[in-house]
Amino acid sequence: MAPPSAISPTRSSNDDSKPSTAAVHEPGLSESKAKIQMPKFPGPPTFTDKYAERDYLKGRLAAAFRIFGKYGFDEGVAGHITVRDPVQPDTFWVNPFGVAFSLIKKSDLIQVDHEGNVIDGGEVRLLNAAAFMIHGAVHKARPDVLCAAHSHSIYGRSFCSLGRKLDMITQDSCSFHNDHVLYESFNGIVLAEKEGKDIAACLGNKKAALLQNHGLLTVGGTVEAAVFWFLSLEKCCQAQLAADAAAGGRGHETVKIHDDDAAFTYKTIGTPRAGWFSAKPLFDVIERECNGEYLE
Predict the structure, then answer these.
(1) Phi, psi of 277 (to 5 degrees)
(2) Which of 18, 43, 91, 168 counts the most CB atoms within 10 A of its CB?
(3) What is the pTM of this model?
């Protein structure tokens, strides 16, 4: 007798023998097992007090800068991460211009309105004009975006010089399947309102943008998601640069993931909840390493 086949099983009244139609990309997975729900992961905290939420988000934003500093995403005074203020949603909190990512504390952050005025915050109230132009436009265009992150990371800016989007060549890159754009323009430092609006328009409803000759931009409905998407996109750029170089050196091309498989994988690792949960270890580690100093 031939061994059981995952493709053509023997039919019976027990649906354990039926191939799953709910997870067609998992050969051998039965219908009953496919119906078993994934573990219910935790989610971001919820607040009834908007001032308590503000305090919490400022702490997460300060932690995000410590993470960026740890991974070397600082380049002089360039780079910024913003979080929408829950008390005054038409304003956002951002790092003060010229303060090192690795030293930023919650009390250092500055609050900026959509006219570019610093209305609250720490002792250093210098605002990076590019931060306002890009992030102000994104927050205004995308009410769903709580946090936006941009920096001149080495692999991101290297890949952005190629004028192309990511290829789906790794499982991790599938997080950005049909969810990132290429902004095909560079007009110097973003100091004009029109440039910021153009970037926001190009981003559309996606979670990431490759700013040509510039760097990466990611957004999220949580601070954690925006930060994780940035780190993941940076590593995807690094992986593709290495893979393209290795394949090209042999006169070959990288093997691309089929569009259906990339879309299927995205549903697991590219969702907002996946981004939030994937960042949890990063934030846990930085809290331990800094002894929570950033919360001051």
Answers:
(1) -70, -35
(2) 168
(3) 0.86
